[in-house]
Design goal:
InterPro entries: Cyt_c-like_dom, Cyt_c-like_dom_sf. The structure is a single chain. By secondary structure, the chain is an all-alpha fold. The chain contains seven helices and no strands. It has a domain of 109 residues: Cytochrome c-like domain (Cytochrome Bc1 Complex, Chain D, domain 2, Orthogonal Bundle), CATH 1.10.760.10.
């Protein structure tokens, strides 16, 4: 009798083990009950798509007032050039290859079109864009720009100046100081 009980318990344990092992597989990853509707497959709307529930029919939404993206730091010197001029460059004097290569990449992508690849400015820049501009961009290797603090240069990159628009959305915040260092490198090369 004892061996029959042991056999029954052993078979039950083996059956439970087989059920447990076979329940985890391709079918085991999907729940069979969706408690909150549309949590598994949320309806997505592309920004350019028509959305009948939107007041203007556009799928693109304006973020709620007072919100900021994760990791975003607002620029506190938006209208204060003097305050921005006092900012200290956290990587001042860092002319390592890694720093200059990042600065060069963003400078050549965003700035060289108007200011020239060597910072020579719109008059001397060998750029089809700068040649067609009525007001030629200044040389970033000029004495005027050399006299600016790193903070002032950072501010002009971030907020723009004169007819130059802001480049805050084109050059990520963490790389703007590297662009400043690259401009300082160009200034040393122009001597």
């Amino acid at each position: 009798m004892r061996s029959l009980v042991n056999l029954t318990v052993g078979m039950a344990a083996a059956g439970l083990a087989i059920m447990a092992l076979t329940s985890c597989g391709p079918r085991g990853n999907k729940p069979n009950v969706e408690i909150i509707q549309d949590m598994m497959d949320t309806p997505a709307i592309k920004a350019q798509e028509y959305d009948e529930s939107s007041p203007n029919g556009s799928g693109m939404r304006v973020p709620p007032e007072g919100t900021a993206p994760v990791g975003f730091e607002p620029y506190r010197y938006a209208t204060d050039v003097e305050g921005a001029s006092k900012m200290k460059n956290p990587i001042a004097g860092d002319m390592e290859n890694s720093t200059l290569l990042v600065g060069q990449k963003y400078y050549e992508t965003n700035c060289a079109v108007c200011h020239g690849s060597k910072g020579e400015g719109g008059v001397e820049a060998k750029s089809s864009v700068a040649a067609k501009m009525a007001l030629k961009p200044p040389a970033v290797v000029s004495d005027k720009v050399k006299g600016w603090t790193d903070g002032h240069l950072y501010h002009v990159i971030t907020m723009g100046q004169g007819v130059m628009g802001p480049y805050a959305s084109h050059i990520p915040q963490q790389y703007r100081w590297q662009v400043v260092n690259y401009i300082r490198f160009l200034e040393k090369q122009s001597k």
